[in-house]
Amino acid sequence: MRPIKTKRLLLRKIDREDVKDMFEYAVDPEVGPKAGWLPHKSIEETKRVIEGMIISNEVYSIVYRDKMIGTIGVHTKNDKKYLGYVLNRNYWRQGIMTEACKAVITYLFRELNIDVLYISHFIDNYKSEGLIKKLDFELVGPKTDIVNGEPKQVLEYKIERYRFERKMLTWQ
Ligand SMILES: CC(C)(COP(=O)(O)OP(=O)(O)OC[C@H]1O[C@@H](n2cnc3c(N)ncnc32)[C@H](O)[C@@H]1OP(=O)(O)O)[C@@H](O)C(=O)NCCC(=O)NCCS
């Protein structure tokens, strides 16, 4: 993973120094649970999460005006690459995650040469659904994931290379 710059953002590897900024949004009940994790209870928990993310080497910090305001990353499950993201609530609805996703998706197809990228959201997460549709992912279908020991209905989508190349033309 190399750092990526966009018009407003710097996407770079997550760092131990992000702990205070991550804790700020990780305690928010409207953030983690929408992405499948429980709100953090202490800054020590956030430190442990960051250590895990550093080891996985799959997570970018989203930096806006010198502040870490969220993460975007790709994890592999059953040989499929999934995009995932969360953003501090104070920065919602400003096109920030659209901007971060376009940059990461372009990097994955153009530089890491992936052929297909998956994404999923809980059935009631209409915000993420809107973003996924805006990015032109196509619906694969519903499925059930076990999240924190509970079955949860999710919708899964994918974008293949040809579809990315076509959509990308409108991203310039
Ligand atoms: C989902 C999330 C990342 C969106 O980030 P964002 O930067 O606010 O999204 P954008 O401003 O780029 O919006 C992109 C599209 O998403 C949809 N959307 C985002 N916020 C929305 C809202 N509050 N209401 C309705 N649609 C919304 C819209 O379709 C929007 O496009 P539009 O502005 O042209 O209508 C953010 O709400 C978040 O962090 N939520 C909690 C964690 C989460 O759900 N993670 C995803 C798990 S699958």
What topology does this entry show?
Blueprint: E1 4-5, E2 9-13, H1 19-26, H2 32-35, H3 43-56, E3 59-64, E4 67-77, E5 80-87, H4 96-110, E6 116-122, H5 126-134, E7 138-147, E8 150-160, H6 161-168
Antiparallel strand pairs: 1-2, 2-3, 3-4, 4-5, 6-8, 7-8
The protein binds coenzyme A (COA).
Coenzyme A (COA) is lined by residues 31, 34-35, 85-87, 92-98, 121, 125-128, 130-131, 134.
Description:
The protein has 172 residues and is of the alpha+beta class. The chain has one domain (4-168): Aminopeptidase. It contains six helices and eight strands; from the N terminus they run ββαααβββαβαββα. The protein has helices at 19-26, 32-35, 43-56, 96-110, 126-134, 161-168; strands at residues 4-5, 9-13, 59-64, 67-77, 80-87, 116-122, 138-147, 150-160. The chain has a five-stranded antiparallel beta sheet, sandwiched between helices. It has a three-stranded antiparallel beta sheet with strand order 6-8-7. A hairpin with a 3-residue loop joins strand 1 (4-5) and strand 2 (9-13). It is globular, with a radius of gyration of 15 Å. The mean pLDDT is 96. The site of coenzyme A has 21 residues, from helix 2, strand 5, helix 4 and helix 5. Coenzyme A is lined by residues 31, 34-35, 85-87, 92-98, 121, 125-128, 130-131, 134.
Name the CATH architecture.
3-Layer(aba) Sandwich
Mean pLDDT: 96
- How large is the radius of gyration? 15 Å
Number of strands: 8
Give a brief outline of the structure.
This protein has 172 residues and is of the alpha+beta class.
